Amino acid sequence: MPTLKLTNKQVVELIKQLPSEQQVEVFRFLLLQQWGEWEALSRYAVDKVRLIAQERGYNWDIMTEEEREVFVDKLMDED
Length: 79
What we know:
Number of helices: 3
Largest sheet: none
Radius of gyration: 20 Å
Shape: elongated
Helix content: over 70%
Order of helices and strands: HHH
Strand content: under 5%
Distance between the termini: 53 Å
């Protein structure tokens, strides 16, 4: 079976031509391919923010969503 060589742009254009259901299938496939990395990155980020919060006298696990957002905003402003 011959191998077809396409640019990224050509692949995207081909996907755009697919019906919605098949686009969703392609998206699902790509998402699942990267899921492990996203999950690991997410765990790392949560562990890191917990540690930073603890270093500053906060407990990330008992903070409300609003408190977390304020805390992260403050961290972002520091840089």
